[in-house]
Structure formats: structure tokens, C-alpha cells
User: What shape does this take?
Amino acid sequence: MKRFFLAIFLTLLLPASSYAARNSIATDDFNRGSIGANWESTEQWDCSAVIIDLSTRFTGSHSSAPCSSRWVGTGTFTNDHYSKAAVVSWGGSTNQQVGVACRMSADINSSGTNARDHYQYTILDDSGTSSKTTRLIKYINGAPTTLDTATVAWTGGDTIEIECEGTTIRGFKNGVQQVSVTDASLSTGGPGIIADGGIYGDNWEGGSITAGGGGGLKPRQRIIIQGKR
Assistant: This one.
């Protein structure tokens, strides 16, 4: 009697680990004429504020400098939290950006230069195609440090998300993790949004992380051993 073993290697898109357990605290659909009191604007380079465009979406008030705003509306966030928004549209190879932020501090400098600390995950509109550079960036006293990057295909309506859990900072597209880094520079703050003028986001949500997990969906290999004869 002959015996044989067949090893079949399958690459599947399986949960590498579940999302961190979370509690949604605040949402915003931006369906109004102005950004309102729920968002605290910051002086960031030449940009004064994230603003409402066409009474339906958010963008920056300046076309060549990123604008940031921190949620200060209803709800109390833990220092482990997430921020996510829908990506609406972009101009095409304009090098403008839109995204979300976590552990964003109050603006501690009123002299016209940004001193807000935060982590941000943004799409850089750096090509005329759907493939864009996404960047996980840390700001300390207004100085940016790029922590991780990935080239990702985006279409209108996709969701961009950042998650801050302990010293782990993650960026997601539609719930699938794209970037991740360990960094202990910032441990406090709240959720926020980022945008240049001419690139747009919508349907924001922020909430607290209540238990460990994180990681979204990642490719993982499985090995199946079959058969004997």
C-alpha cells in the first residue's frame, strides 16, 4: 500500500485579529452651512480651519496647507480612541490631503503657527490615478515625522480610519489595516479631522477603544494536509 500526503497552501483574507472593542461616541454628517462649535479649529501654517463645503462635506480653508480640527462636542473619549471618515473626492495629482487624527491636543500656540500635537492618517493626492500614497504622521509642536506609508487604491466613499491603542497606531481603509507603528510620543488627546482645500471628506465618526485587539483584516496562510492511500 502506498501512502501520499498532499499539502495545499491557501492564502486567504482572514482576520489576523479582531478590531479592538470600541464604543462609538460622536458622529457628524456635515450637512449644514458652517463647521460649528463642535469642532475646535487650529492655526496650522496658512490654514485657519476645516470648513463645510456645499453644506454636505468638510474640506480645508486653504488649498496649499493642511487644516486640522479637533472634536470638542458632546462625549468623553478615552486616550485610546479611533477617528474615521468617508473620502468623498479629490482634484487629481494635486498633492493635497484628507484624513483623520487621534490624540490631538488643543492648539497651544496662538501666534499663527501650529503647535498642536497629534497622530494623523491621510491620503496624499499625488497621482492622477486611484492609487494614492497614504501616510501615518506624527506632529509634535507643529513638526511632522512620517511614521509609515503605503500606496493604496481609493475611490469615492471609501472609509479612512486611524486607531490609537496604547503605543500602537494603526491606519485603515474600509476596515483593512494598511499601516501600523509603535510610538510612545503622545498618550493623551482627542479625535480630529485633516483636510486641504479642494479635497473632501464626510460622515465622520469617533469613539473610544474599550479592549485590546486591533489589526483589521490581513492576508494569512493556511496549510491543509490531506489524504493517505
